[in-house]
Amino acid sequence: MKFQRIAGGIALAALAASAVAAQAEKVVILAGHVIAGPDGERSGPATITVVDDKIESIVPGNQPVDGADKIVDLSSKTVLPGLIDLHVHLGSDPSGDWWREAIETDEWITLTNAKNARLTAKAGFTTVRDVGNDPRASAAQVRAEAMGWFPGPRIIWAGMPLSTIGGHGDVHGFRPEVMAALEGQNTCTGADECAALTRKTVREGAAVVKFMATGGVLSQGDKSLGQAFTDSEMTSIIETSHALGVPVAAHAHADAGIHAATMAGVDTIEHGTFLSEATAKEMKAHGTVLVPTLLAFKGIGEQLGKGFYTPAVEDKIRQTLGVFGQGCRRARAAGVTVAFGTDSGVTAHGRNAEEFELLVDKCGMSPREALASATTVAAKVLGMDQQIGRLAPGYSADIIAVEGNPLEDATALQHVDWVMAQGKIVD
Ligand SMILES: [Zn+2]
User: pTM of the predicted model, to two decimals?
Assistant: First the structure.
């Protein structure tokens, strides 16, 4: 939130985009209603003019416009800002087959990434934070989108999350010769190794660093959901990353891990499952944001008992479902900022907007607050609140259209009829 950085992959993409720059294109949108941001009311008919990738003007009424290259008739729809998901994994699809990690090729991950980027954009999500993916797949996707090969969401990516040996994210349990190829790429032990791995991650182009503060639900080996990295390792990762101007996200289920990451200065806690009231107060005091990923819990609950996951994983799923939404509710009660994230990849990409209903039902938000979590609030977490998260002149042309009124009905966002991402219509 306090940091912004041009990642290597993004810089390369910008270079590629400048090579294909064409003359300005003007698109005029005739909107039935407009929600410019979650803090205002839904207006009546309006005309939105987009030039290239930016909103130029929004004026009342459906006005005739001179010199439009394209006119989009959304006069029966509600038009609002493109949505932001702070926790996705575009390179992966839902799977109980943990051994796939040993057989999937980088090329397959890249194609999976492209498929899911499109599904995500079509679902109305025009900005995502990918907090666990092959860094080269993420960089290739960003570059291809900038080239205009296919539209997709703006991607702020972490590459490989940092893990402890044997912890969540350290895939293991294979034959020694397979392990020799997999092992040690994203694990570190002790402050020095963790500082070095953080620098390597940022050198790859990561615009956010992600680390596994605790065990994980879907990993086989880590015995519990408890704290993984030591306090000093977490401090090393966070201080090193912040010194490079890169914010840090911590995957954390157990309260001890949430507490340790918070005290070490992490920017966002992902999941926050077993958050205590005392730690919620610390998060509030430190300005730490919670990204609760409620959809992930819904998704794993849907597959429970169907032979999809191994018994060890099913046991951990039952533990987390016993407190479904509790961490989110405690965070809100303590005044902690709660921002939108789904963990898509655990569930099928494109279902992202189901999170809105869960934020209302399981966390007590109003539909308006839920919409804010995926627009203005998430934009602020990314340090991009002057560019995305609302419709206003000068803002990025990230625009969607739905039936109904999302300020009153959190399910209205589950059916997105039209999407523009950075000025490009997604069809
Ligand atoms: Zn995740």
Answer: 0.94
Cα–Cα distance, 415 to 207 (Å, whole number): 30
162, pLDDT greater than 90: yes
User: Residue 87 C-alpha to ligand 1 middle, in angstroms?
Assistant: 6
Give me the percent of the chain exceeding a pLDDT of 90: 77
pLDDT of residue 223: 67
- Say whether both 219 and 281 belong to one domain: yes
Does residue 251 share a domain with residue 352? yes
| 301 and 374, same domain (yes or no) | yes
**Confidence (pLDDT) at 21:** 52
Q: What range does the domain containing 335 cover?
A: 82-381
Please tell me the distance between residue 91's alpha carbon and the centre of ligand 1 in angstroms.
11
Q: Kindly tell me the sign of the dihedral angle through the C-alpha atoms of 60, 121, 143, 70.
A: negative
Residue 149 lies in a domain: yes
Strand ranges (E), 253-365? 268-271, 289-291
Closest-CA residue to 156 (of 291, 348, 18, 327): 291
One domain for residues 363 and 340 = yes
* Total domains, the chain: 2
Q: 70-94 pLDDT, tens per residue? A: 999 999 999 999 999 999 999 999 9
Q: Which of 37-41, 224-228, 297-301 has the lowest mean pLDDT?
A: 224-228
Cα of 167 to ligand 1 centre, how many Å? 14
Question: What's the chain's average pLDDT?
Answer: 92
Q: Cα(241) to centroid of ligand 1, in Å? A: 20
Residue 143 maps to a domain? yes
- Compute the distance from residue 58 Cα to the ligand 1 centre, in Å: 37
Sign of the CA dihedral running 174, 106, 7, 152: negative
* CATH number, domain containing residue 59: 2.30.40.10
Higher local confidence (pLDDT), 332 or 216: 332
Task: Look up the CATH number of the domain holding residue 118.
Answer: 3.20.20.140
Ligand 1 midpoint to CA 133 (Å): 10
> In terms of domains, do 211 and 320 share one?
yes
Q: For 169-186, how does the pLDDT look when each residue is reduced to its tens digit (9 = 90+)?
A: 888 888 888 888 877 789
CA 356 to ligand 1 centroid distance, Å: 18
Please give the distance, rounded to the nearest whole angstrom, from the Cα atom of residue 98 to the centre of ligand 1: 15
372 and 397 in a single domain? The answer is no
CA of 388 from ligand 1 middle (Å) equals 23
* Residue 407 belongs to some domain of the structure: yes
